[in-house]
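Support reply, case 0932

Customer input (verbatim):
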Amino acid sequence: MRPDDFWGALTAAERDALRAVARPRSFPARTPLCLQGDESDHIIVIESGWVKVASATEDGHAVVLAVRGPGDLVCESAVLGARHRSATVTALSTVRARVVPAARFTAFLDAHPRVWRLVSGTFVRRLDDADQRARAHVAVRGDQRLALLLAHLAELSARHAPPAPDGGVDIAPPLSQQELGSWMDASRETVARGLNRLRQEGLVRTGWRRITVVDVPGLLEFAHRPADDTE
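Our regenerated output:
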């Protein structure tokens, strides 16, 4: 169980009660689970698969904010009192999930006060994560931001699948270079150059829409080197 794994933190009785008010649903890849600006009328718990959370800017660009995977709660603005969604959640792969109408989920939380604390903790951690990423974007260069992001994604991926015998961790969320760039506030070209640098350093391997992190501590060390040492 991960600290931020909503489903894994529930007891067996809580899971049964939540299943009773939810309906199972599958979302093909590239299908939106909820749309920015729509009315907040349901929450979703991911059972399998990966999604990206993105927000549209005033000029129409979509900025990737996060990825979520198995066990995560998404489209949660329905229980925050927000009338409209603040972001779009889109399936990166086929997603199996439990969909719960907002009123039923609120009633479930009222009947299980402990789960309110889990939901609140999820919100707080996500705010903290967003703040840390914002500070990192200001503090380091493009290839260092990429190293930080890949280290984060490797840690996330390793929670759901064990590393290879050689210690390599395949990045599970199937993100394109453009999506990685959007997440780290950089161009696709910056991501391509960064991946090339990290390959030269022996920190990652790449293939067709595949990135394998070879050395997570090495990525973190690279990300925190003084700027002159990364030239």
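We compared this against your earlier run and they match. Two observations from our side: The first helix runs from residue 6 to 9. The helical segments are 6-9, 12-21, 102-111, 113-139, 142-158, 177-183, 188-200, 216-223. Please reopen the case if you see a mismatch on your end.
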